[in-house]
């Protein structure tokens, strides 16, 4: 049975990684700490039900809490239909392209952002991401596809996603 | 130039690597747990008030009006129970006083002026403690407070149910001692029996003053008529009105004592 010692071990081992995940969701370190404190507090309150691997539960709270705060606060990060134009040119402009992608990331709605972060930072598969976000695998793929289109990520990457099981 | 998915991974990893701030500690998490619990407790009080109001609306006795046309016996068995309201107390939202506690081993006095007939006193502690609460000089409640060995954050919450009227000036006294002071030579984790007035004062006096952390909150509380208690209502009666109308109803046993009327 999970107990306080388990929880302390979990926080010690995972809080750093979880904080970075929270940061990528909200793009502000102070908010990320706030988000993670809330997620870990809720995880502790439900610790006996969390299961062998607490990560999916904590990721779910992070994503849901971020989405809820985003809806309430409207922190100037509103999704847009028209993307900011990335710097175009040759490989020397890659830095400009990265900045443009960062800007585009902050404009993604919370669910698309969560899909990108869970897939490309937490390295989770579609099935795990679907379980965390409480949606179907098909929804994860379509959200990812839309997000990557907004980020102007290489179409080969988008094709690779649709082939994955 | 568009990015590949590996570029995206690198970008996210790089952005996330530039960590700033102190990070999140267990103490941070524990403080957030306490905040969530307090918020849930307040929400529960509001919900209970709403449920109580709904219960009061739902318990009006029902009658059935019939007009016999064919001479058949109108006293058909349609007993409907009448309900006797019970009593309960409910803490409200209005806070009379909220103060930080910074000293243990000493009886701290918190005078307040209340506008409700009852009062809810809540004490929460930042360290494992044992708390005593007096109201107008009388030891009313005591217990463990703060995070104990069971890793549960205990909160003292007490409502005066003496039936008196606490509107006006009152005094709440609170004293905190380390939990082992009250536990004496008991095995850790075993329940601590309540101490009497003199014993409580002795324990506090012998502890001596020390720095600690906590908070006392004094808020309104009201006597409420809720959760009706069913009584025996199985005797059918027919009420004959002067206009010839007959009302089928039920006769109930008399309650043992007259319920107080709702206040608030």
TrEMBL record, chain A:
<dbReference type="Pfam" id="PF04542">
    <property type="entry name" value="Sigma70_r2"/>
</dbReference>
<dbReference type="InterPro" id="IPR013249">
    <property type="entry name" value="RNA_pol_sigma70_r4_t2"/>
</dbReference>
<dbReference type="GO" id="GO:0016987">
    <property type="term" value="F:sigma factor activity"/>
</dbReference>
<dbReference type="InterPro" id="IPR013324">
    <property type="entry name" value="RNA_pol_sigma_r3/r4-like"/>
</dbReference>
<comment type="similarity">
    <text>Belongs to the sigma-70 factor family. ECF subfamily.</text>
</comment>
<dbReference type="GO" id="GO:0003677">
    <property type="term" value="F:DNA binding"/>
</dbReference>
<dbReference type="InterPro" id="IPR014325">
    <property type="entry name" value="RNA_pol_sigma-E_actinobac"/>
</dbReference>
<feature type="domain" description="RNA polymerase sigma factor 70 region 4 type 2">
    <location>
        <begin position="99"/>
        <end position="151"/>
    </location>
</feature>
<dbReference type="InterPro" id="IPR036388">
    <property type="entry name" value="WH-like_DNA-bd_sf"/>
</dbReference>
<keyword id="KW-0731">Sigma factor</keyword>
<dbReference type="InterPro" id="IPR039425">
    <property type="entry name" value="RNA_pol_sigma-70-like"/>
</dbReference>
<protein>
    <submittedName>
        <fullName>RNA polymerase sigma-E factor</fullName>
    </submittedName>
</protein>
<keyword id="KW-0805">Transcription regulation</keyword>
<dbReference type="InterPro" id="IPR013325">
    <property type="entry name" value="RNA_pol_sigma_r2"/>
</dbReference>
<dbReference type="GO" id="GO:0006352">
    <property type="term" value="P:DNA-templated transcription initiation"/>
</dbReference>
<keyword id="KW-0804">Transcription</keyword>
<dbReference type="InterPro" id="IPR014284">
    <property type="entry name" value="RNA_pol_sigma-70_dom"/>
</dbReference>
<dbReference type="Pfam" id="PF08281">
    <property type="entry name" value="Sigma70_r4_2"/>
</dbReference>
<dbReference type="InterPro" id="IPR007627">
    <property type="entry name" value="RNA_pol_sigma70_r2"/>
</dbReference>
<keyword id="KW-0238">DNA-binding</keyword>
<feature type="domain" description="RNA polymerase sigma-70 region 2">
    <location>
        <begin position="11"/>
        <end position="75"/>
    </location>
</feature>
Automatic annotation (TrEMBL), chain B:
<feature type="transmembrane region" description="Helical">
    <location>
        <begin position="41"/>
        <end position="60"/>
    </location>
</feature>
<keyword id="KW-0812">Transmembrane</keyword>
<keyword id="KW-1133">Transmembrane helix</keyword>
<protein>
    <submittedName>
        <fullName>Uncharacterized protein</fullName>
    </submittedName>
</protein>
<keyword id="KW-0472">Membrane</keyword>
């Amino acid at each position: 049975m999970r107990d306080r010692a388990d929880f302390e071990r979990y926080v010690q081992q995972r809080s750093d990684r979880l904080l970075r995940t929270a940061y990528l969701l909200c793009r502000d370190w102070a908010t990320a700490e706030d988000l993670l404190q809330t997620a870990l507090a809720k995880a502790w309150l439900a610790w006996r039900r969390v299961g062998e691997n607490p990560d999916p539960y904590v990721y779910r709270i992070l994503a849901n809490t971020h989405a809820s705060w985003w809806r309430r606060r409207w922190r100037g990060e509103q999704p847009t239909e028209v993307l900011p134009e990335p710097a175009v040119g040759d490989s020397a402009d890659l830095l400009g392209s990265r900045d443009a992608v960062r800007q585009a990331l902050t404009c993604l709605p919370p669910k698309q952002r969560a899909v990108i972060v869970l897939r490309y930072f937490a390295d989770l598969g579609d099935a795990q991401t679907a379980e965390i976000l409480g949606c179907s695998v098909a929804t994860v793929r379509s959200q990812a596809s839309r997000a990557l289109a907004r980020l102007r990520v290489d179409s080969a990457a988008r094709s690779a996603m649709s082939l994955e099981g | 130039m568009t990015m590949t998915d590996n570029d995206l991974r690198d970008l996210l990893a790089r952005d996330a690597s530039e960590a700033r701030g102190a990070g999140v500690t267990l103490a941070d998490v524990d403080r957030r747990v306490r905040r969530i619990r307090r918020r849930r407790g307040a929400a529960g009080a509001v919900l209970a008030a709403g449920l109580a109001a709904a219960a009061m609306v739902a318990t009006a006795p029902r009658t059935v009006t019939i007009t016999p046309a064919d001479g058949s016996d109108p006293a058909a068995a349609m007993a409907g129970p009448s309900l006797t309201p019970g009593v309960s107390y409910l803490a409200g939202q209005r806070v009379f006083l909220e103060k930080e506690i910074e000293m243990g081993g000493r009886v701290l006095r918190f005078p307040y002026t209340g506008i409700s007939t009852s009062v809810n006193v809540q004490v929460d502690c930042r360290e494992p403690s044992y708390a005593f609460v007096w109201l107008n000089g009388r030891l009313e409640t005591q217990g463990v407070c703060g995070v104990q060995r069971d890793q549960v954050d205990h909160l003292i919450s007490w409502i005066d149910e003496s039936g008196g009227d606490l509107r006006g000036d009152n005094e709440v006294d609170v004293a905190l001692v380390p939990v082992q002071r009250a536990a004496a030579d008991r095995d850790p984790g075993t329940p601590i029996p309540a101490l009497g007035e003199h014993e409580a004062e002795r324990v506090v006096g012998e502890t001596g003053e020390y720095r600690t952390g906590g908070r006392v909150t004094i808020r309104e509380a009201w006597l409420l008529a809720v959760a009706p208690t069913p009584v025996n209502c199985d005797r059918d009666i027919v009420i004959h009105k002067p206009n010839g109308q007959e009302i089928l109803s039920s006769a109930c046993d008399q309650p043992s004592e007259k319920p107080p009327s709702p206040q608030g």
